[in-house]
C-alpha cells in the first residue's frame, strides 16, 4: 500500500491486492520492502511464496517479476551500490546479491542454527551502512548482530542476554535502523516497545516508544521501522493494524 503524507483514509494498492496466491499478480505474506530508486520499483520479500519479487511503481503495473526464487526471505536491505541483502530464515544466513544474480555471496551466518558468533537463529530484518556492514535482527537469539564486511563472525551490538524485558534484553527483535552517528533503533516486538542503543553502549538500551496496549503512545507487536527526513520515526504497529509516527528527541 502507498499512503500520501497526511492522508490517513485513502491508501493505494501498488503491489498484489489480488488475494493470497503465488501468481505474478499476487503476494502471500509479504514481510519487507525496499525501494529501488534507479528503476523506480519496489523489491518485496514475498515470504510465504519463498521468493523476492520486483514491482514497478509506474502506473498500469499489474504484476511483478521474480528476482530471487526458493528463498525463505524475511528481511531486505539495499546499499548505495544497489547490492541487495536478503535474510533467509530457513538457512540461518544473509546473502548479498547483485540484481539479476541468483546465488549471491554469504555475508552473515551460514553455519547452521545456533547462538555462536558465527551463527544466526531465524534472522529477520536487516540494515546495511555505508561501509557495507550488515546489522541483523537475530530474532530467536534475542540480539542484534553486526557483521563487518568480509568478517567470518559477527559482533553482538545489542541484547544477547536471553529473552526478557530488562533494558539489557529483547523479546524477539524485528525492524532495525542505524543512524549516521551509529545509534541503533530496534523494534522489540514481544515487549511492545522501540529501543535505542547508542554506539558503544552494549550494556543496555533506552525505551523511546511503546508499552503494551492500544493507546496513542503505545504499541502492540511492533515490526518495521523507518525515519523520514525530519527525523520522525514511523513504526509498523502490527497487532494494532496501524502505522504510528513518533517525534524522537
Provide structural commentary.
0% of the residues lie in helices and 42% in strands. A 4-stranded antiparallel sheet has the order 1-2-3-4, with no helix packed on it. A 4-stranded antiparallel sheet has the order 5-6-7-8, with no helix packed on it. It has 249 residues and is mainly β. The protein is globular, with a radius of gyration of 17 Å. The protein has 2 domains: 1-155, Neuraminidase, CATH 2.120.10; 161-249, Thrombin, subunit H. The mean pLDDT is 93. The protein contains no helices and 19 strands.
Report Rg. 17 Å
Total number of helical segments? Answer: 0
**In the residues, how many domains can be counted?**
2
Briefly note the CATH topology name of the largest domain. Answer: Neuraminidase
Largest sheet: 4 strands, antiparallel
The helix/strand order is EEEEEEEEEEEEEEEEEEE
SSE order and pairing:
Elements: E1 30-36, E2 41-46, E3 51-56, E4 65-69, E5 73-78, E6 84-88, E7 93-97, E8 105-109, E9 123-128, E10 134-138, E11 143-147, E12 155-159, E13 173-178, E14 184-188, E15 193-197, E16 206-210, E17 222-227, E18 232-237, E19 242-247
Antiparallel strand pairs: 1-2, 2-3, 3-4, 5-6, 6-7, 7-8, 9-10, 10-11, 11-12, 13-14, 14-15, 15-16, 17-18, 18-19
Amino acid at each position: 500500500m502507498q499512503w500520501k503524507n497526511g492522508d490517513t483514509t485513502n491508501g493505494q494498492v501498488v503491489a498484489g491486492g489480488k488475494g493470497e496466491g503465488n501468481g505474478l499478480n499476487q503476494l502471500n505474506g509479504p514481510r519487507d520492502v525496499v525501494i529501488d530508486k534507479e528503476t523506480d520499483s519496489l523489491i518485496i520479500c514475498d515470504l510465504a511464496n519463498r521468493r523476492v519479487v520486483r514491482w514497478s511503481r509506474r502506473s498500469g503495473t499489474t504484476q511483478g517479476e521474480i528476482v530471487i526464487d526458493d528463498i525463505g526471505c524475511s528481511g531486505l536491505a539495499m546499499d548505495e551500490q544497489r547490492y541487495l541483502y536478503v535474510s533467509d530464515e530457513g538457512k540461518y544466513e544473509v546473502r548479498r546479491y547483485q540484481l539479476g544474480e541468483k546465488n549471491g555471496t554469504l555475508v552473515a551466518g551460514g553455519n547452521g542454527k545456533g547462538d555462536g558468533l558465527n551463527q544466526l537463529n531465524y534472522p529477520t530484518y536487516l540494515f546495511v551502512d555505508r561501509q557495507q556492514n550488515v546489522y541483523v535482527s537475530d530474532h530467536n537469539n534475542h540480539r542484534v548482530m553486526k557483521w563487518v564486511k568480509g568478517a567470518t563472525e559477527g559482533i553482538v551490538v545489542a541484547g544477547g542476554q536471553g529473552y526478557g524485558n530488562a533494558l539489557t534484553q529483547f523479546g524477539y527483535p524485528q525492524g532495525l535502523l542505524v543512524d549516521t552517528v551509529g545509534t541503533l533503533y530496534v523494534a522489540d516486538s514481544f515487549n511492545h516497545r522501540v529501543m535505542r542503543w547508542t554506539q558503544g553502549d552494549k550494556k543496555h538500551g533506552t525505551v523511546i516508544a511503546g508499552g503494551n496496549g492500544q493507546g496513542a503512545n503505545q504499541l502492540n507487536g511492533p515490526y518495521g521501522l523507518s525515519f523520514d527526513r525530519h527525523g520522525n520515526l514511523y513504526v509498523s504497529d502490527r497487532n494494532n493494524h496501524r502505522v504510528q509516527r513518533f517525534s524522537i528527541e
